[in-house]
């Protein structure tokens, strides 16, 4: 789950849906949870559900979501507590991605951190895939988009091995923003820093975890 920087509120809103374009200009047209690209019908999602006391018009309570993550999440979290959120936590360090297991809590998490990671995965149904015992609904196409993206990612990696240049690294980053699923790109190119740097530049509003003497710095207002 990509960590993002939303920034300060750019406007005042009379309806929360009016924040959509401002959010997309800051963090790109991607679901903040499953990372699928959404060019049409992307939704402004309340992190703290309004039904559970969240502020309907608070910029800091907005993220962008695909309709699938939004409909699975619904009002199932009472507040932010007990989950990891991409706007305040070092979420890339909380999760591990793979083609077989999709998304899991990262190795080495403390028990409470692992619990928060699992709760986040379950809240949005991020690991739903056919024939897994955790089936998506017929309408949920996230797994299809993810499989298609993984194919492009593997092809791009193989092409990189034959043409490891700065120019091609930028092209891979452009391809990545076109197909989404940021964390799978980072997973595949985890040992190719030149490509990682270009991908992080290409995805608007990406926050890269910070370290102090090798120790992770917890983000402001976050828990991880």
Based on secondary structure, the structural category is mainly alpha
Shape: globular
- Major sheet strand order: 1-2
* Low-confidence segments: none
The fraction of residues in strands falls at 5-15%
What order do the helices and strands follow? HEEHEEHHHHHEE
Number of strands: 6
Distance between the termini: 13 Å
| Residues in helix, % | 25-40%
Largest sheet: 2 strands, antiparallel
What is the alpha-carbon Rg in Å?
Answer: 17 Å
Q: What is the residue-mean pLDDT, rounded to a whole number? A: 97
Q: Quickly count the helices.
A: 7
Task: Explain what you see.
The structure is a single chain. With 224 residues, this protein is mainly alpha-helical. It has a domain at 142-202. Helix content is 36%, strand content 9%. It has seven helices and six strands, in the order H-E-E-H-E-E-H-H-H-H-H-E-E. It has helices at 20-27, 67-73, 111-124, 142-162, 166-179, 182-188, 193-202, and strands spanning 43-46, 62-65, 95-98, 102-105, 211-212, 215-216. A hairpin with a 3-residue loop joins strand 3 (95-98) and strand 4 (102-105). Helix 4 (142-162) packs antiparallel against helix 5 (166-179) and helix 5 crosses helix 7. The longest helix is centred in the C-terminal third of the chain and has 21 residues, at 142-162. The protein is globular and about 55 Å long. The protein starts with 19 loop residues before the first helix and ends in an 8-residue tail after the last strand.
């Amino acid at each position: 789950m990509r960590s993002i920087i939303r920034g300060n509120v750019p406007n005042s809103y009379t309806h929360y849906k009016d924040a959509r374009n401002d959010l997309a200009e800051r963090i790109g047209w991607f679901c903040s949870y499953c990372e699928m690209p959404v060019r049409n019908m992307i939704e402004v999602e309340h992190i703290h559900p309004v039904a559970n006391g969240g502020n309907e018009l608070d910029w800091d309570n907005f993220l962008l979501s695909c309709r699938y993550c939004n409909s699975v999440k619904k009002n199932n979290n009472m507040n932010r507590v007990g989950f990891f959120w991409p706007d305040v936590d070092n979420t890339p360090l909380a999760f591990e991605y793979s083609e077989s297991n999709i998304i899991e809590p990262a190795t080495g998490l403390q028990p409470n951190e692992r619990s928060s990671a699992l709760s986040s995965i379950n809240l949005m149904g991020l690991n739903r895939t056919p024939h897994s015992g955790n089936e998506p609904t017929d309408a949920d196409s996230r797994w299809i988009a993810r499989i298609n993206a993984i194919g492009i990612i593997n092809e791009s990696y193989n092409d990189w091995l034959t043409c490891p240049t700065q120019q091609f690294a930028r092209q891979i980053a452009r391809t990545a923003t076109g197909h989404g699923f940021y964390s799978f790109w980072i997973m595949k190119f985890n040992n190719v820093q030149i490509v990682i740097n270009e991908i992080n530049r290409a995805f608007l509003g990406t926050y890269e975890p910070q370290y102090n003497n090798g120790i992770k710095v917890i983000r402001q207002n976050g828990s991880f």
